[in-house]
Amino acid sequence: MKILGIGIVFNRGRGIDSLEKALHEGWQAPAGVEIKGRKSFAYKVDQPTISDRTLLKNMRRADKLSKMAVVAASDALAGSGIKDLNRKRVGIITATALGAHVTTFDFLDDILEYGDAGVSPTTFSNSVHNAAGSYISSALGIEGPTLTVTQFFFAFHSALQLAQVWLHEDRCEYVLAGAVEQYGDVLGFVHDTKLTPAPDGRIRPFNLKPAYQVPGEGSVFFLLGNKKHDNTFCEIHNVSINADEKDMPQADLDIIDTDGLLEDETVYTRCVSSAVPAAAYAPLFGSMLSGSAFNCAAGALMMRKQKIYANPVTDNLHDLNIVMNTVPCNIELIRCIRYNCFNEKAAVYLRNARD
Amino acid sequence: MPSNEAQDLARIKKTLKELLVADLSLEDIKPEEIRDDEVLFGEGLGLDSLDAVEIVVILQRKFGLEVKDLENRKDVFYSIDTLAKYIYENKKNIS
């Protein structure tokens, strides 16, 4: 299946141009946040980034998670440039690890403060996991199947696999598949107390141990389809979860999802080799359980531009073969890799699109 | 109207307008732009049935008033004026 359009909302802005700009500019310090009196960092999306009066005119009740997802999904659709898209034949798959947890905690706080009869029905309806998917469907007038996939590390990969099935079975002509995560106080507290916060706000993807993290938030959506169009980025050649990759060809670049969410990321040394340069772009958008989607967006952009972008943070404790400079390059295949806490591996192979 | 009643009503109206804008996420309007006699639902401010339930929650949380028979209390939910009057009279009964 092909990536026909990409929409992205993250702390550096909205749209694929913002991602390209961030890849060119490199690392920038994230916002400071305070967690129970302690100073920390988070890659947060500003409210103006998701202020879109036209698109969100009927979404005043939506929470930030849903708004980020709708903006990204809408941009993926618009970016494809496909005019005659039959919206009855478009599916939506939203991948999220923690979903509307901020709204869920708001709802729980309301119960504690006002009792179960005094809670807001709007807060409740926004707290369900499928809220973002429903808002996308409603805001964009999409009438195909809508599903939300929830899993800690591999939600995005599962969403891509499901999209492959829907397209293969011709259940849909196109699928909007993407990921969305939101930062909140509870998540900040968990990150700060259970993981290793980056003391200067800088994720060091090649440190591996200790693995420093800075929580992030945002959304990436991909318009996927089997037919190549003018604006096609690349194709998703293969998506695997815990599968044998011995028959897969060697990639030109490995993008690894090292972002500090695993306590020990040395497991990634199993898959990278000195023959293939490695890159990791989490320092641009933050540590997210669905961060693979953001790295895949960076990979797809590199395929389209035929350019490899320098790593935003190049501390290289293990002397890996990492990308140091932004250079034009002939890229045929990119592998995006994520490990979970059970040392299981998921991989997305991006390849130049063929007819 | 005794002056303290007028002051109480004015205070309730101001609070109500601020609560409506904040809790109903009304994006294009400021509290002071809502007229006291403006129709809240349909024409006018354009609120809908879900907003009505949210207003019931506001009355309960902020003013300690329970509105049980929502369908037959449309007169109360007509405008800021009618809501404020309802709050004033019922809070007086409670206290």
Question: Can you offer a commentary on this structure?
Answer:
The complex is a heterodimer of chains A (355) and B (95). With 355 residues, chain A is α/β, with parallel strands linked by helices. In chain A, helix 2 crosses helix 5 and helix 3 packs antiparallel against helix 4. Chain A has one domain: Peroxisomal Thiolase, Chain A, domain 1 (3-Layer(aba) Sandwich), CATH 3.40.47.10. Chain A contains nine helices and 17 strands. In chain A, the strands form four sheets. In chain A, strands 1, 2, 5, 6, 7, 10, 11, 12, 13, 16 and 17 form an eleven-stranded mixed sheet that branches. The longest helix of chain A has 17 residues. Chain B is mainly α and 95 residues long. Chain B has a single domain, classed as ACP-like (Non-ribosomal Peptide Synthetase Peptidyl Carrier Protein, Chain A, Orthogonal Bundle). Chain B is built from three helices and no strands. In chain B, helix 1 packs across helix 3. The model of chain B has no long low-confidence stretch (mean pLDDT 88). At the A-B interface, loops of A face helix 2 of B.
Number of helices of chain A: 9
The CATH topology of chain B corresponds to Non-ribosomal Peptide Synthetase Peptidyl Carrier Protein, Chain A
- Give the CATH superfamily of chain A: Thiolase/Chalcone synthase
How much of the sequence lies in strands of chain B comes to under 5%
Enumerate how many helices of chain B there are, as a single number. 3
- What is the helical fraction of chain A, as a range of percent? 25-40%
Mean pLDDT of chain A: 95
What general form of chain B does the structure show? Answer: globular
Q: N-to-C SSE series of chain A? A: EEHEEHEHHHEHEHEEEEEEHHEEEE
Q: What CATH architecture of chain B do you see?
A: Orthogonal Bundle
Largest sheet of chain A: 11 strands, mixed
Give the biggest beta sheet of chain B: none
Number of strands of chain B: 0
